[in-house]
Write a structure and sequence with these properties.
Layout (H helix, E strand, L loop, with lengths): L2 H10 L13 E2 L11 H12 L7 H20 L8 E4 L2 H12 L5 E6 L4 H8 L3 E6 L9 H7 L4 E7 L11 H14 L2 E5 L20 H4 L2 E5 L13 E5 L2 H8 L11 H13 L1 H25 L4 E2 L7 E5 L9 H9 L1 E2 L1 E2 L10 E5 L4 H17 L2
Parallel strand pairs: 1-11, 3-4, 3-5, 5-6, 6-7
Antiparallel strand pairs: 2-8, 7-8, 9-10, 10-13, 12-13
Length: 383
């Protein structure tokens, strides 16, 4: 497919990534890939559509999806989540919000490692919980055990861990995760581990599920993930959560029936196909993203050294530091206005994001080059 025809395909999609801005803007913001999903998923969905298989079928997916995820996780990460403690949700955010509501009380503190995925902030505020922040050092982006202890305030009852980390691309290592587990045990904290980026880890790093650390860690953890990020299925709602923490499992069981609804049948079908037949496609996609990551870092380092970038160990987003440039006040807004390129605004990820913007590099190499070119033109014009 030619570049022009592929851009036409992308702009014709109903998703928000390519529809948010005008046709003169190249979008690189929301975490959707510009690649079609795995053929095995398309085939599975086509079979359902051709058979008009849209009846009530939630019960069958409640059994098959946890089993498929358990096998996927064991194969890729060496941890097999307990199928009996694994529940199917519509989205990862629904699972996280549910764990937060049944595992903590109004007024409780919830710690975030900031900058971090923007919806977590609203989730804490709207649920009546109190935001507690651990500001990741912008140079090292590491978690220090002593600093973590000092960040925890009286009344803190939970931690939302995003690993691999969005927006920085860090993969927290065994020492960091063990430190979180140790502090969580000391302070009796619930750990809600968002591991939706688990499949996008590049050579040199390794994803370690938090619940795999020990029996004690698993017993205070809710692990949340989905196939949606890995296989570009953001509009087909389906996620899973392993309710290792007994308090959360009991709270979930006590919710009124139908409060959370059932998973969408097409989303469940796509998820099952992904975790059953999608691994080869995913490996090729990660290789393409790896090449994009290296190309992005190389060009920025050589041509725009004033724009800081830490090499992402995972994900397909890059956390760009514009604080030494002329667009430091609001980089994403200036890049959109002057360069017609759409990045995610750094301050949306918390106060630690001021002077930063997030770039999605899950696109075709030629489009990535155009994005970098436009950023360069704006930065050089404002130097």
């Amino acid at each position: 497919m030619s570049q022009s025809s592929d851009i036409e395909r992308l702009r014709a999609l109903s998703g928000i990534k390519w529809r948010r801005y005008g046709d003169d803007v190249i979008p690189a913001w929301v975490a959707d890939m510009d690649f079609p999903t795995a053929p095995a998923i398309i085939d599975a969905l086509r079979t359902m559509v051709d058979a008009s298989d849209f009846g009530y079928n939630g019960v069958s997916f409640d059994d098959s999806i946890p089993k498929a995820w358990a096998e996927w996780s064991e194969r890729r990460f060496g941890w097999r989540p307990d199928v009996e403690r694994t529940k199917v949700f519509s989205t990862s955010l629904q699972a996280i919000a549910t764990a937060l509501m049944v595992g903590t009380s109004a007024g409780d503190g919830v710690l975030l490692f900031t900058p971090v995925y923007p919806p977590f902030f609203g989730m804490i505020e709207k649920s009546g919980r109190t935001l507690v922040e651990y500001h990741l050092d912008q140079a090292e982006l590491r978690i220090d055990e002593d600093l973590l202890r000092s960040a925890i305030e009286p009344g803190t009852r939970a931690v939302i861990l995003c690993n691999p980390h969005n927006p920085t691309g860090r993969v927290f290592d065994l020492a960091e995760l063990t430190a979180i587990a140790r502090v969580a045990e000391e302070r009796d904290l619930l750990v809600i581990s968002d591991e939706i980026w688990q499949d996008f880890v590049y050579p040199g790093a390794r994803h370690i599920p938090f619940a795999s650390l020990s029996t004690e860690a698993m017993a205070r953890c809710v692990t949340v993930t989905a196939a949606s990020k890995s296989f570009s299925l953001g509009g087909l709602s389906c996620a899973v959560a392993n309710l290792g923490d007994a308090r959360v499992a009991e709270g979930f069981a006590a919710l009124p029936p139908h409060l959370l609804g059932d998973v969408n049948a097409l989303g469940a079908c796509a998820t099952l196909a992904a975790w059953t037949h999608g691994e080869a496609w995913l490996a090729e996609t990660v290789d393409a993203l790896h090449a994009n990551r290296d190309h992005l870092v190389a060009r920025l380092t050589a041509e725009l050294p004033e724009v800081g970038i830490a090499m992402p160990q995972a994900t397909y987003v890059a956390w760009l530091d514009f604080r030494r440039t002329g667009v430091a006040v609001d980089p994403a807004a200036q890049l959109l206005k002057r360069g017609r390129v759409g990045l995610s605004s750094g301050p949306d990820f918390g106060v630690a994001g001021e002077g930063f913007a997030r770039l999605n590099f899950a696109t075709h190499p030629d489009l990535l080059d155009q994005i970098i070119d436009r950023i360069g033109l704006v930065c050089h014009a404002t130097a």
